[in-house]
Amino acid sequence: MNIEKNIEQILEDIEKYSPNPSAVKLLAVTKYVDTDTIQKLFDCGIKNIGENKGQVIRDKAKYFAEKKIDDICWHFIGSLQSNKIKYISEYISLIHSVNKISLAREIDKKAKECGRIISILLEINISGEESKEGYSYENLLEDLPEYFELKNIEIKGLMTMAPLTDDENILRKVFAGLREKKDELNKKYFSYQSDGKILTELSMGMSNDYKIALEEGATIIRIGTKLFE
Ligand SMILES: *Cc1c(COP(=O)(O)O)cnc(C)c1O
Fold first, then answer.
1. pTM of the model
2. What average pLDDT does range 100-121 have in this prediction?
3. Can you tell me the distance from the alpha carbon of 141 to that of 189, in angstroms, rounded to the nearest whole number?
4. What is the pLDDT of residues 64-80, one digit of tens each?
């Protein structure tokens, strides 16, 4: 495992494949590794760390808070249960996987209790695979007016999981599809909001497909396996 070299490679790829490299964040997904390895990532300059389990992220975040390392941005990327929001609400930087209005309501409530605005992404199931979580675009549109009522969350952008395939055409279609949805949502809905805030983030691309995601405009790539090989 040569973390430093792997990071360097991915940062080079961001420069090479993204049309707008300065807008891209490398999110290190650390669900496979312990706090010593997260420390190594941090020492290599990685500040954005992603986990997919409520209790695990709480314990890891606590470990670093006790070491007075307080400039890690923690991201939640998994399927989030309402009763686990309390483990992350006080410090989470971004929740990537909001795919139900009931979940958004609970996040909003917990954010209010902490006196915070919590940033979220809306998860869309672009590929339409039944096994995948995430909104269909139609269902998202139905819920959207209620999202605009929730004042303690801020919707920063969209997230998707691509299907498990090596077929570049399928992957590209999914990533381009998410970008098109973002543009459409901004044009038809977000630009009319009183705060004028539009969607800027596209969380898409993992170890096996991040280059294509970058070409299609990803602003957050979520990388686990490739960092630790
Ligand atoms: C595990 C995970 C990743 C990272 O996947 P790798 O293939 O290991 O890079 C990205 N996003 C989500 C939602 C994950 O659960």
1. 0.97
2. 98
3. 9
4. 999 999 899 999 999 99
Distance (Å, whole) CA 138 – CA 221? 25
Sequence-ordered list of residues with C-beta below 8 angstroms from that of 218, at least 6 positions apart, any chain: 18, 24, 175, 202, 203, 204, 205, 210
Ligand 1 atom closest to Cα of 222?
10
The single-letter code of the amino acid at 120 is: I
Rg (CA), the chain: 17
Taking alpha carbons only, the member of 104, 98, 82 closest to residue 158 is 98
For the purposes of burial, counting CB atoms within 10 Å of the CB of 198, is it exposed (0-12), middle (13-18) or buried (19 or more)? middle
| Residue ranges around ligand 1 (CB below 6 Å) | 29, 31, 52, 77-78, 161, 206-208, 222-226
CA angle, corner 89, sides to 145 and 45, nearest 5? 110
